[in-house]
Amino acid sequence: MAYGHFAAVYDRLMEDMPYEDWLSFVEESWRLHGLKPVRVVDLGCGTGTITLPLAQRKYAMTGIDLSADMLTVARKKAEDAGEFGITWLEQDMRDWALPNAADAVISLCDCLNYLTEEEDIRAAFRAAYEGLAPGGLFLFDVNTEHRFRVYAEEQPFLLNEEDAAYIWYCDFEEETSTIVHDLTIFARETAERYLRIEEEHIQRAYSLNWLKEELSRAGFVRVDCYGDFTWNPAHAETERAFFLAVKGDRISS
Hints:
Number of helices: 7
Order of helices and strands: HHEHEHEEHEHEEEEHEE
Largest sheet: 7 strands, mixed
CATH superfamily of the largest domain: Vaccinia Virus protein VP39
Number of domains: 2
Shape: globular
Helix content: 25-40%
Low-confidence stretches: none
Number of strands: 11
Strand content: 25-35%
CATH class of the largest domain: Alpha Beta
CATH topology of the largest domain: Rossmann fold
Structural class: alpha/beta
């Protein structure tokens, strides 16, 4: 997806997202799995809001995203923070490669929901598996069908502040488990001028059991699924499901 002008206002619109919860969940998952990663890949890194703080915690980070516009914002944020050690790559999460295998791969903020074909999910799982070292951990989250139904029931969503405003409509299609997000965004450029941005985002929810099966088919030997930033198993009313998938056995050093 080419985000264009949306990249410039993305952080402003997403500032209320639970980034600290994501960061805590990531590091706790590594601890619980006895993993002390050095090389970490952030798939669908966007503007680097997860990538950057992990780099500041001394992980060797690679941020991968398909949007050059989002990566431009991410690089600028990292430079402003004095963090020059991050590798930023414009690659597809379905087909990416690095010179050295990663100890951990993460993909957060429901990035995989944007893959609306089953084969695209399979390709993303294969790429993550191939990109990991043995014993490495693939951690990602997805919005569930229940979450999409909640969106559809509660929409439209409105923001009306001095520097930014939006109107956000959702249309959930039960037969295909897809949701279309239509956003009209107004971002202040000057004291008297606002930029109008029209966005359409399409996501698909997948059966959690199907995702588990496909992770196993990709080669992962242990797959766990938790709900809503907890260590409780995901269930029918889970809104955000977290998957942790392990690649084989760790090689002794």
